[in-house]
Amino acid sequence: MKSLFSLYYKNLFLTTRLFIGLGGAAVLYLLSFFFTWLGQIPAIFFFTLIVLLIIDLWMLYGTSNGIFAKRHAPERLSNGDDNEIGIYIENFYNFKVSTGIIDEIPHQFQKRDVLFQTTLTSHQHKLLNYVLRPTKRGEYEFGYVRVYVQAPLGLVNRRFNFEQGQTLAVYPSFLQMRKYELMAISNRLNEYGIKKIRRLGNSMEFEQIKNYVAGDDFRTLNWKASARRGELMVNNYTDEKSQHVYCVIDKSRTMKMPFEGLSLLDYAINASLVLSSVALIKQDKAGLITASDQKGAVIPADRRPTQLNKIMEVLYKEKTRYMETNMELLYTTIRNTLKQRSLVVFFTNFESMSALQRQLPFLQRIAKFHLLVLVFFENTELKKISEQPACNVEGIYIKTIAEKFAYEKKLIVKELARHGIQSILSAPQNLTVNTINRYLELKARQKI
C-alpha cells in the first residue's frame, strides 16, 4: 500500500492553476477579517477548490493506462547529418487531455529542451517528429519517454514514464553516402556540384560490339564483324574497371581540429565512405588504410558486396591520436599492401610548410609507385578573420598572421605540384564534393 501511494505521489505534480486557486482562497480568508460581509464565501471557495481537485485526481487516476507513448528511432544514426526521431502518443482517456512530452536524449547533445506540448482528444493518436544531429561517432544512450498529462480542470499533472532505454550507434555519414550512391547510379552526380570532365581520347576497356549509328567514331569500326553481318559494326568502349582506389586517413593530432562540431577526422571519414561507395558503383575496387604513430587498419581493395560494410565498421571505431604520423611505417604498409598501381587518396592536414617538408620525402616515394592525391584542409576560421576589416593595431596584426597562414596553404599546393603530387585544398564542408570531383576527373583522363 505504501509503495502504491509513493508511486502515485512521485508522479503527481501540482499546476500553476491550483496554486492560484489556493492563493485566492488565502486572500479571501484574510479579507474576511476586515470585511465581515464576506461571511462564508472564503470557506465555500476553498471547499469548492478541494472538490474540484478530487474530481481532477479521479479523472486522471481513474484509468491506469490512460496514455501510451513510444519512441521511433532508426537502427543507427548518421554522423554529421540530420536524423529524424519520432514519438508516437495515444490517448486512452474518455476526455480531451493536454500533454507535455519529454524525451530523454543522450547526454552528448547537451540539450534539455526536447519538450513537446500537444492536446489529444479521446482515443486520438499522433506522431511527433524532431531532428538530432550527432557530431561524434560512438554509442548514444536514450532514456525514458516522460508524458505529463493534464485533465480539462488543469489543477494537477500526472506523469507517465515509459522505460525505453535505447542505445543507438552513430556511424559515419551513411545518409550522405546513400545520396551520392543514387546520383552515381543514375549518372547525375553533377546535380550536387560534381563537375563533368571532358574525356581525353578513348578508353581501352572493351564492352561490346554494336551496330553503327550516325555519329559513331569511324576509328572504332570492327571490319571482321561487319563482314560477317553484312552491315557496319563498331566496338563500344567503357571506362576502365577494377582499378584500385585506396583511402588513406591520417589519425594524428592534426586531424582533431573541429569545424562546425565535427573534427577533421570525421570529415575525412565521411568523404572516404562516400568515395568508396562511388568507386564500387563505378566497378572499381575500394580499399582503406588508417595511419598514426602505430599501424592502423588495413582493408585490401575489393569490390565484393560486403566491402562497403567492412569499411564502415572499421571507420566507426577510428579515433584521433595525439602523436604525429609515422610516415615511414605508412610507406611500408602501402608498399606491402598495394601490389599494383593504385589511386591513393591521402586525407591529412598541414598548417605550415615545415610540417610538409618533414613528410615530403615519404610522399615522393609513394607517388613514385602510385597516383597520390593529397587532401588537406583550408582553415575557414582564419579565412574569415583575414576577410574582416581591421579596426586597430591588434586587429591589423591578427589579420596579417591569418593572411600569412592562408598564403602558406597555397604555397603547400604549389610545392606538392612541383614534386608531381596532386593535391586538394578544401574547406571541410566541401570535402566530399571536391574529392569525388577529383576521382571522376582522374578516371575520365585515364590517369589511374
UniProtKB/TrEMBL annotation:
SUPFAM superfamilies: vWA-like. Keywords: Membrane, Transmembrane, Transmembrane helix. It comes from the Bacteria. InterPro entries: DUF58, vWFA_dom_sf. The chain crosses the membrane at residues 12-35, 41-61. Residues 209-353 form the DUF58 domain. Pfam families: DUF58. This is Uncharacterized protein (DUF58 family). It comes from Mucilaginibacter gracilis.
